[in-house]
Amino acid sequence: MTTREELCRKIEEVFPKAGACGIDFDVEYDENVSAWAVDLHRGEHHLRTFIETEEADSCLEGEKCIPLGMQIAQLKRNFELSTCAET
């Protein structure tokens, strides 16, 4: 199974504008839903998405990373829209 560190590096590689793991986003495995939780945050604001284990593994094995990249890009877009609406 994919490790947190591997997934962080892959997210930074696939979508460098997402920021840096531990600074702009966090990744943790959520046992309750059996998926990776990705939290994008800036200040007190944050949004979360889930990445299925199979999707993360497939991406790290060099097969398909498009779904992961699209999901992170959409999360970042939603985040930017939600923080802009508050200013």
Shape assignment? globular
- The helical percent reads 40-55%
Strand content: 25-35%
Distance between the terminal alpha carbons, to the nearest Å? 41 Å
How many DSSP-defined strands? 3
Number of helices: 3
Q: Give the biggest beta sheet.
A: 3 strands, antiparallel
Q: Any idea how many domains?
A: 1
Q: Largest beta sheet: what is the strand line-up? A: 1-2-3
Cα-based radius of gyration, to the nearest Å: 13 Å
The residue ranges in which pLDDT falls below 50 over 5 or more consecutive positions are: none
**Helices and strands: which structural class?**
alpha+beta
Average predicted local confidence, pLDDT: 84
**From N to C, what is the helix and strand string?**
HEEEHH
How does this model look, in words?
This protein has 87 residues and is α+β, with helices and mostly antiparallel strands. The chain has helices at residues 4-14, 53-60, 66-85; strands at residues 25-30, 35-42, 45-52. It has one domain (4-85). The chain is 45% helix and 25% strand. Strand 1 (25-30) and strand 2 (35-42) form a beta hairpin. The chain starts with a helix and ends with a helix. The model has no long low-confidence stretch (mean pLDDT 84).
